[in-house]
Amino acid sequence: MKNSITICMGSSCFARGNRDHLELIENYLHGNGIESDIRFSGCRCRDTCGRGPNLEINGTLHHEVDTGTLLDLLEYYFSNVETKSRAS
């Protein structure tokens, strides 16, 4: 399975932090040269608004994600991703 991040862009999650998380994720992927190796997309509400902000990484839904937790999750899931340019 290809690595993926799906960030909830519903109004509750967006207001609770995913507005900032969107930029943080983009900067992380770009800064590590792995943006072409990770499928990054947005979605509408996942019906877990009360536990937001929510995002899904590689099929696992994460709730109440704050900036520190998000950075830890990105490192956990993607620190070992080999880019096509580094693998060559």
Compose a concise summary of this entry.
This protein is of the alpha+beta class. Helices cover 42% and strands 18% of the residues. The chain starts with a strand and ends with a helix.
How is the topology of this model organized?
Layout: E1 4-8, H1 11-31, E2 39-43, E3 55-57, E4 60-62, H2 67-78, H3 84-87
Parallel strand pairs: 1-2
Antiparallel strand pairs: 1-3, 3-4
Helix pairs in contact: 1-2
| Number of distinct helices | 3
Q: Report the principal-axis shape.
A: globular
Mean of residue pLDDT values: 91
Biggest beta sheet attributes: 4 strands, mixed
Strand content: 15-25%
Spatial strand order of the main sheet = 2-1-3-4
Residue windows where pLDDT falls under 50 for at least 5 positions: none
What is the element string, with H for helices and E for strands?
EHEEEHH
Strand element count: 4
Rg on CA atoms, Å: 13 Å
Structural class, by secondary structure, is alpha+beta
- Give the fraction of residues assigned to helices: 40-55%
* N- to C-terminal distance: 21 Å
Q: Your description of this structure?
A:
This protein has 88 residues and is of the alpha+beta class. The protein has helices spanning 11-31, 67-78, 84-87; strands at residues 4-8, 39-43, 55-57, 60-62. A four-stranded mixed beta sheet has the order 2-1-3-4, covered by helices on one side. Helix 1 crosses helix 2. The model has no long low-confidence stretch (mean pLDDT 91).
